């Protein structure tokens, strides 16, 4: 089983650019959820069971990101 880690550097506060900042954050969040769903969907049913998930849990888990 492979580990997929996509760390985000948040060492410095980002300047607030209003609507543009919120749009960028929305795209980043959407992409994180998409990548999570894709990674979990590629696991076998047995691998999902090993981590305590089922296919029906994938969307719920992805929404946490």
From TrEMBL:
Pfam families: YjiS-like (PF06568)
Domain YjiS-like: 24-59
InterPro entries: YjiS-like
Protein name in the entry: DUF1127 domain-containing protein
Source organism of the structure: Roseovarius ramblicola
């Amino acid at each position: 089983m492979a580990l997929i880690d996509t760390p985000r550097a948040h060492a410095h506060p980002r300047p607030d650019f209003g609507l543009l900042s919120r749009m960028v954050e929305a795209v980043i969040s959407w992409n994180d959820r998409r990548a999570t769903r894709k990674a979990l969907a590629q696991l076998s049913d047995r691998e999902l069971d090993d981590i305590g998930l089922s296919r029906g849990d994938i969307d719920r888990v992805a929404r946490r990101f």
